[in-house]
Design brief:
The protein is α+β, with helices and mostly antiparallel strands and about 110 residues long. The chain contains four helices and five strands; from the N terminus they run ααβββββαα. The protein has a domain of about 40 residues. A hairpin with a 2-residue loop joins strand 3 and strand 4. It is extended, with a radius of gyration of 20 Å.
């Protein structure tokens, strides 16, 4: 699997939009900063066609040390950023996505 880094995205956007690299870099960095701030403020950021960024919170709890199962440990509360892909992104990646959805509806698994 090839990894596409931010610099490659910026380069691709420049070529496609015929925009200067500095301008595209500013926009990408602003988008990154805004998404971070909004998600950190517990806001959902929805980019139609791409997906949704949001904050998932877990409560503190007790657990067991997997290396010493008889040892009880405290697991702290966490805040984790989550990305949920849009239906159109799923369909673009998986050519059978719509078929899967139809099967789920037929089997009653879409609820």
């Amino acid at each position: 699997m090839k990894i596409v880094q931010k610099e490659q995205l910026i380069s691709d956007i420049c070529k496609r939009s015929k925009t200067k690299e500095g301008d595209v870099t500013l926009v990408i960095e602003a988008l990154e900063d805004i998404v971070k701030k909004q998600v950190n403020s517990n806001h959902r950021v929805e980019l139609n066609g791409l997906g949704v960024f949001y904050l998932k919170k877990t409560k503190a709890r007790t657990g067991f040390n997997p290396q010493h199962p008889d040892e009880i440990i405290k697991v702290p509360a966490t805040r984790v950023p989550v990305f949920l892909p849009d239906e159109r992104l799923k369909a673009a990646v998986d050519p059978n996505y719509e078929v899967h959805q139809e099967l789920d509806k037929l089997l009653g698994m879409d609820e």
